[in-house]
Design goal:
The structure is a single chain. The protein has about 70 residues and is mainly α. The protein has one domain. Helices cover about 60% and strands about 0% of the residues. It contains two helices and no strands. α1 packs antiparallel against α2.
Length: about 70
């Protein structure tokens, strides 16, 4: 799932722009957004690795709620 990593660069660019233009609250929000994006990307990578290793019944990202994306 490395093809999703580009979004982290875009978020960093947006944060830089926000900071340079006096949009401090937006810059802070983009920090939070970056953490969420990184967690979801990492979760996708872990799920892909587990499937490649023949593991089943993996849990998806729990960002936003515990077990929110459980798979049978």
């Amino acid at each position: 799932m490395a093809h999703n990593d580009w979004i982290l660069d875009v978020l960093a660019d947006l944060k830089t722009f926000a900071s340079a233009n006096g949009l401090g609250k937006l810059a802070e929000q983009l920090d939070d957004t970056t953490l969420v994006a990184a967690a979801e990307i990492a979760s996708q990578k872990e799920e892909a690795r587990a499937q490649a290793n023949g593991e089943h019944g993996q849990f998806g990202s729990s960002v936003g709620g515990v077990g929110r994306y459980q798979r049978a």
